Amino acid sequence: VAEGEPGEGREPFELPRFWDALGQTFQVTSQEATKLSLAFSRPPLPSAEDCRKLSEDVQNAILAVATVYYWLPKGQGTTLRKMVRDATTEVVEGMIQLTDTILNAPVESLSQEQLISTGGVWEACDQVSNLPRDNQAAVVSALAACLGVVKDAVEEMEQALVEGQDPYGDIMEDEELGFRGNRDTYWSEADRQLLSSCMGLMKASKACLKKVLAAVKAHGKADSPEQIAQLDDLADIANEISPSVDELALSMYPPVNPLAVRLNAAKLASVLKKVLEIAKASHVCPPSEEGWVQFLAGAVDHNMNKVKNFTQGQL
User: Fold this and answer.
1) What CATH architecture applies to the domain 135-167+175-311?
2) What residues does CATH 1.20.1420.10 cover in the chain?
3) Keyword Cell cycle, does the record have it (predicted)?
4) pLDDT number for residue 7
5) Are the beta carbons of 125 and 156 closer than 8 angstroms?
6) Which residues of the chain form CATH 1.20.1410.10?
7) Please, how many CA atoms are within 13 Å of residue 131, restricted to the half-sphere of its CB?
């Protein structure tokens, strides 16, 4: 499941039929986990014949889950497929863990681990009802997750800058550092000027994701192969924003190396420009959406130019 590629089926693929079948296989797996757990919850142990029947049923349930997952062709969207694959993998891994727990548990009593493992399978199987039903919903979910991470990073950095001259004040004791006037733990005035432009880029990242997310919600469709592929391209490039924001944020802590900051700012700026380009060229961006694309591209350039000016002397 984790490594394999789907077969492009010969018969026409029907999304509603796929979801019905996947829901059923997840439900059966949940029931088999309950049966297996109950059989080994107290003595006497099941007979050899019962064990064979139980393990066959578990195996069939898991094979059915994997088989239905394999129905989902890549053409339905790689973002959707990854989410379904992760959910399927979780079910399979949950069942492996439950089986291991039963094999290693003392016979006399129902162990805490066995209860937790059984609950883990139930939880993994319940996830099917929360999965996005097509690639547009999957990309909305992926973009919303990216936006959440970037929002946190922006807030954390703003907090650090507001809290004054010493961002490490809360975590480092005097004796660990020696002299507290140590330049390595402070931002100079020049650092702060540079960092305000970096904050501008981080805020532009948040605004970019917000706007692209709103555009995908409003105009995104998953009716044609072209629309599905455009949504996947957007999700793929948006996935690069959060790691780029993190790298920039890390390089902003003292002691500040202006060249490292410039390099990380340039990386982030380039990812943001690419996101805006891909959005603009796709179906999620009708003429009504073009204003914010231009505005944000301008904001990225403006902040990046300020970073370049502040670091020019370092080159």
Assistant:
1) Up-down Bundle (1.20)
2) 15-130
3) yes
4) 67
5) no
6) 135-167+175-311
7) 26
Structural contact between residues 150 and 245, judged by C-beta atoms closer than 8 angstroms: yes
Per-residue model confidence as pLDDT tens digits over 146-192: 999 999 999 999 998 887 555 565 555 555 544 445 556 789 989 99
DSSP assignment letter at 255: S
The terminus-to-terminus CA distance of the chain in angstroms comes to 49
Distance (Å, whole) CA 153 – CA 111? 41
- Diameter of the chain measured on Cα atoms: 80
Name the pTM for this structure: 0.89
What pLDDT score does 214 carry?
98
- Interior/surface letters 162-198, b for 16+ CB within 10 angstroms, e for the rest: eeeeebbeeeeeeeeeeeeeeeebbbeeebeebbebb
CATH architecture of 15-130: Up-down Bundle (1.20)
Q: How far apart are CA 126 and CA 23, in angstroms?
A: 9
pLDDT < 50: residue spans in the chain: 177-180
